[in-house]
Amino acid sequence: MKVLVLGATGGTGRLIVHEALVKGHSVVALVRSKARAPDLPGADVIEGDVRDEGHLTRALDGCDAVVSSLGTGLSPFSEVSLLTEATRALVPAMTRSGVRRLVCISALGVADSRGHGGFVFDRLFLPLLLRHAYKDKGRQEAAIRASSLDWIIVRPAMLTNNPARGSLRAVADLAGVSGGKIARADVARFVVEQLATDTWLRRTPVILW
Question: Is the pTM of this model over 0.90?
Answer without folding.
Answer: yes
